[in-house]
Amino acid sequence: MVSFSRVLSASAFATVLATAPLAAHAAEVSPPTGAGVANQVEQIAPGSLSADTVFSAVESAKPADLGGIMNYCIQSNYLTASEAWPILAAFNKKTNDVPSNQKGNMSYADGSTGLLKVGGKEPISLENASTDIRKQACAKVEARAKSLL
């Protein structure tokens, strides 16, 4: 008679063997870069964007970009959700960037992934800035959104 522990051990071993190729393959595949213009973002070393570049982009961002970035900031915990969500909801209502007909603004979607379009230049990703710069940029986004309400 086969003991329960041997069957369990054989089953666990088979599971590990079956998933090993998947884990190895996952390590080789690059993650997607996001929606819309995300594929156009230059490959920049993480933490290499300057504060001036990021803050300038925030100051010149269009409302749809601003709303999307604010959403990114909340989701990434750079802004306190209980304080920032009401501002974002009011901002979205005013700008209508997230309409009820499900035909949202692509700039908002890109901003939600951390991308900011800067005039006619290549978009920048907040992920390429240091954590301190991201936090400061998010505070500036929140302040700017408040001022536009």
TrEMBL record:
Residues 1-26 form the signal peptide. It comes from the Bacteria. Keywords: Signal. The keyword Signal applies. This is DUF2501 domain-containing protein. The lineage of its organism: Bacteria, Pseudomonadati, Pseudomonadota, Alphaproteobacteria, Acetobacterales.
